[in-house]
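Students often ask why inverse folding is considered easier than folding. One informal answer: many sequences map to the same fold, so there is more than one right answer. In these notes we will look at a single instance of the problem. The structure comes first.
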């Protein structure tokens, strides 16, 4: 078993199966959306023909939603997955958020949260392009004063309550809208059904992966993650690799891997951040080139699925640097990937 080739296939980085950005997000379950500009490339590069306009179309129509979900951080999810995923992760996410608030000396009483949320709902209703600055102005007009940090926590609380979600795509800033106006009402599956669905989405798109990887990615406790794996156990196969037990989903792809490929991977991409341990693709000696260990990730270059360097984009031009000793980038493969990037930003 070659976990690199299987992950490249499952993550749609090799021989992508989908044309629609929405379909990619749905397949992946949830995609880290930390970096507002590069999240577009993270999705688009997994389509057959990457297009910034195609991403914008699915985002503006509400088929792709950006909000805080798993691990109390930014996620892109398909609209049809939003309600059940929020219900599944809300309690754990709220606990994590309140822990951060406490560490920062911020306490928001229930009465204050409800009062501010009511103001948000009134201001945002009927709009899909509200900025954080608009909410701050509305609060000031009502003689409600708070610093930017406290306002950010109020917005996150409103997201986790199901009130706010992403609006239309702004060139540089996130916008907000009412979730009830962006996302059709949906019936919720049972918690066990939701657990099974989350595990299915993860292992078919991210596998082969360990139980610990799923715990990290989902943000749920290990007991629920074990239960989720057990619920879909007939769909899973296990393999031993370097003393680890890896799960592979029956719908995971095994054919189509092609060597001689370079990927310009954006910061916070699922190929790295979707796993607790990243040693399969990133040698521990080089991890400081990909992330700082405190939550900040950088753009990296993959050569046949292995992280070997960094890249930047400025003025439409790609700049590269290689940090893995003895590595020489395949110039033809780099030119092909650079051409995909150029197509993406121009279409």
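Output (designed amino acids):
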């Amino acid at each position: 078993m070659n976990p690199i080739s299987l992950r490249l296939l499952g993550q749609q980085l090799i021989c992508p199966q989908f044309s629609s950005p929405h379909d990619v997000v749905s397949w992946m379950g949830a995609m880290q959306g930390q970096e507002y500009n590069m999240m577009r490339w993270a999705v688009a590069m997994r389509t057959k023909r990457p297009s910034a306009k195609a991403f914008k179309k699915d985002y503006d129509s509400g088929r792709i939603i950006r909000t805080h979900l798993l691990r109390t951080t930014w996620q892109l999810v398909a609209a049809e997955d939003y309600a059940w995923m929020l219900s599944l992760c809300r309690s754990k996410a709220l606990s994590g958020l309140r822990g951060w608030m406490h560490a920062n000396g911020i306490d928001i009483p229930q009465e204050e949260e409800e009062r501010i949320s009511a103001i948000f709902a009134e201001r945002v209703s009927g709009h899909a392009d509200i900025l954080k600055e608009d909410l701050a102005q509305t609060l000031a007009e009502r003689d409600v004063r708070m610093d930017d940090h406290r306002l950010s926590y109020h917005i996150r609380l409103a997201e986790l309550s199901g009130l706010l979600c992403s609006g239309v795509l702004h060139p540089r800033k996130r916008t907000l809208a009412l979730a009830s106006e962006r996302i059709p009402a949906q019936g919720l599956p049972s918690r066990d059904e939701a657990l099974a669905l989350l595990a299915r989405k993860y292992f078919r798109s991210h596998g082969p992966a360990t139980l610990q990887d799923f715990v990290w990615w989902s943000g749920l406790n290990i007991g629920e993650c074990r239960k989720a794996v057990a619920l879909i156990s007939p769909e899973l196969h296990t393999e031993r690799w370097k003393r680890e037990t890896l799960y592979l989903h029956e719908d995971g792809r095994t054919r189509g891997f092609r060597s001689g490929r370079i990927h310009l991977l954006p910061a916070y991409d699922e190929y790295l951040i979707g796993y607790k341990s990243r040693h399969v693709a990133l040698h521990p000696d080089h991890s400081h080139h990909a992330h700082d260990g405190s939550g900040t990730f950088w753009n990296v270059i993959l050569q046949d699925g292995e992280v070997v360097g960094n890249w930047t984009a400025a003025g439409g031009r790609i700049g590269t640097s290689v940090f893995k000793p003895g590595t020489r980038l395949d110039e033809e493969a780099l030119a092909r990937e650079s051409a995909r990037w150029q197509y993406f930003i121009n279409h």
